[in-house]
């Protein structure tokens, strides 16, 4: 029989979430049902609530940084059992047949399914998901700390791991929900770490999270000290900003990896790429294999998400706080 549960629902674009009773399907082979205890609030939830990406379907249950307790499992599920603590992130499914899926890169599958679009998200009492995209949470991580890792954490971990080589200088631009985690991952991988922000307000916290150097991008003297010296820049900024200024900080053969979703065009002259062999790329969350690796790495190296805990029934207040840019650095909703 289908399960009835309570959830916070976006009935249509631009509306506050309302609490409603929803139905989850009877547990299917290869699926798990999770009793939600914690769910992070991400800017991507807001983008989908407003249909900024053109893929939203209403009514929608947002929430894709989900941690809870496994309460039912379908046949064939081997890596989780009832009572385990499990997490679910952005991805909830993929085709399983394409080249990308066969090479354990489900995050690049052309037919992958974001959790919020394909099914009901984590602002609810229960959640149903393909077990391949549900991950056991290591004992070394609290649920509050683990929730944001399932989106913000994997989003910065994946490109740093992919591009980092010993001896590199790695910069993180934008010290927020993603950026403060990026500093920690880069430091624990052995990088010389540069934090880049548009003001000095994040300076002390950037050093606390692992930065060796702080650069105020509005200060020419700060920018000059790293000009042409950075091997990898992880750009987490989602507001309008000067991509060329970041690009000029790169060393020859350096890489600018763009993570922040903006409506701004990246404009570069061919000479910017040719003369110093610099590269521009992006990164799309991470595969299930990479997610499991990231969670283990975070537990082993004490990667700590700076969170603000709020009750789930204050979700609309939390959204307004995020819109006012008052979150430091990740709001996590606790479902009591």
How would you describe this structure to a colleague?
The chain is α/β, with parallel strands linked by helices. It is built from 11 helices and 17 strands. Strands 3, 4, 5, 8, 9, 16 and 17 form a 7-stranded mixed beta sheet that branches. Helix 6 links the parallel strand 11 and strand 12. The longest helix is centred in the middle third of the chain and has 21 residues. The protein is globular and about 65 Å long. The two termini are 25 Å apart. The model has no long low-confidence stretch (mean pLDDT 96).
Strand content: 25-35%
Provide the structure class.
alpha/beta
Number of helices: 11
In round numbers, the mean pLDDT is: 96
Query: Helicity level, as a percent range?
Result: 25-40%
Shape: globular
Count of individual beta strands: 17
Primary descriptors:
336 residues, alpha/beta, 6-stranded parallel β-sheet, 11 helices, 27% helix, globular
Structure in a nutshell:
Helices cover 27% and strands 28% of the residues.
Topology:
Elements: E1 3-9, E2 18-24, E3 31-41, H1 43-49, E4 66-73, E5 85-88, E6 91-93, H2 99-102, E7 113-114, H3 115-118, E8 126-130, E9 134-136, H4 143-163, E10 169-173, H5 179-189, E11 192-197, H6 203-208, E12 213-216, H7 220-224, E13 230-235, H8 243-249, E14 250-258, H9 270-274, E15 279-282, H10 288-300, E16 307-311, H11 315-323, E17 330-334
Parallel strand pairs: 10-11, 10-13, 11-12, 13-14, 14-15, 16-17
Antiparallel strand pairs: 1-2, 3-4, 3-8, 3-17, 4-5, 5-9, 6-7
